[in-house]
Amino acid sequence: MYSTGPIYLILILAAVAGMIIQWRLRSKFSQYSQIGLQSGLSGKQIAELMLADHGITDVRVISTEGRLTDHYNPADKTVNLSEEVYGARSAAAAAVAAHECGHAVQHATAYSALQFRSAMVPTLSAVSKFMPLVLLAGVLLLRTTPIPLGVGIVLFSLTTLFAFVTLPVEFDASKRALAWIDKRGIVTTQEHAMAKDALWWAAMTYVVAALSSLATLLYYVSIFMGSRDRR
């Protein structure tokens, strides 16, 4: 007989950890945003310089609305920096701008984990539209047939796989970013430590998301297996 008790606990802990990490990330970002770079470069300038240093000439650096909405879009080859990063001249801005360019470098060098992650996007986009309904139907119809829930579990496993594939992509982008800003002299030793700390907290949000997805998957699996035991 499978028990969902421990999995419930894991889900609760993951939710609490996620909230704490999000709060910590925003706190760190705000703190490091107040500290100006000695180099005096803005997020936009840092991004353009990193792209140029890696021989990337077909990627644009643009400003996007929102807070912590920074991302690299491989579809249109743009590094999208939030307003507080695009024009800012701080340790936080340097970290974020270089990190997003790290993804552009991954794209340009055909980094395998990024390629695999990008290949999954179309499938996940299609699956995400009806997966919640399949899982709900699976739970409601479990006494009649386990098939819908089994299908839902397979679909949800793709989401969990995507979350874990994202981890090496994010950690590698941060590694590239920190190595470059240090080698290029963009930051001082103290500023480098701040940038590293900010990126670490950002990475932890992905770690918690992946663990939460895994716990959710195990929750549905435990329900599925429990229904089989009762037959």
Automatic annotation (TrEMBL):
Keywords: Membrane, Transmembrane, Transmembrane helix. The chain crosses the membrane at residues 6-25, 119-141, 147-167, 198-221. This is Zinc metallopeptidase. It comes from the Bacteria. InterPro entries: Zn_peptidase_2. Signal peptide: none annotated. It holds the Pfam family Zn_peptidase_2.
